[in-house]
Amino acid sequence: MASTKNTKRDAEYTEFVSAQLTSLRRTAYLLCGDAHRADDLVQQAITKLYVRWHRTRDVVHLDRYVRTMLVREFLDERRLSWAKVRLFGRTPDESRQPEPNTELRLVLRDALERVPRRQRAVLVLRFLCDLPVDEVAHLLGCSPGTVKSQTSHGLAALRRHLGDAADIPLIAAARRV
At what angle do helices 2-32 and 62-75 cross, to 10 degrees? Predict the structure, then answer.
């Protein structure tokens, strides 16, 4: 009996994670700017979800709950000091010649990586994941006013890092990152 119950539970978990995986990987990549670190963040979040699945599978907005877990994993990532070490000079994607508009995306991605973590999380959630202020506040465990000020400071930092390229329409370019 317990085996049938666990099999059903595992099937529900697998179905949910499979449906959310693309969105989670994209969000994680936008947050950290590295495909391998993004995969690690997603793996950490979905592993924690699996451990809690018996309690969380009936949550009304489970996708938001998991996104919150993912963002918090990103913000708490300081304990992973090895994540800052690159084994290769370039990732395979960086060695290709840029396509038209790819250079703009790379410049924007580089600038976004230099924005402080919490501000970067707010910018990614607000503009790239297209979430409203209240939902971002809930995800980050802060007030809507904090989200608005972090958005303002994050955009200012992004513009500073972009320098001459700051005249580009940021939101339109960011959605293509």
Answer: 50
User: How many whole angstroms separate alpha carbon 176 and alpha carbon 94?
Assistant: 17
Query: Cβ distance 158 to 170 under 8 Å?
Result: yes
| Residue 177, pLDDT score | 44
Report how far apart the first and last C-alpha atoms of the chain are (Å, whole number). Answer: 48
Q: Residue 45 CA to chain centroid, in angstroms?
A: 11
Instruction: State pLDDT tens for residues 83-106.
Output: 444 444 444 454 444 455 677 777
Write down the pTM of the prediction: 0.67
What secondary structure, in 3-state letters, does the chain show?
A: CHHHHHHHHHHHHHHHHHHHHHHHHHHHHHHHCCHHHHHHHHHHHHHHHHHHHHHHCCCCCHHHHHHHHHHHHHHCHHHCHHHHCCCCCCCHHHHCCCCCCHHHHHHHHHHHHCCCHHHHHHHHHHHHCCCCHHHHHHHHCCCHHHHHHHHHHHHHHHHHHHHHHHHCCHHHHHHCC
Q: What is the pLDDT of residues 105-124, one digit of tens each?
A: 778 888 888 999 999 999 99
Q: What is the pLDDT of residue 165?
A: 61
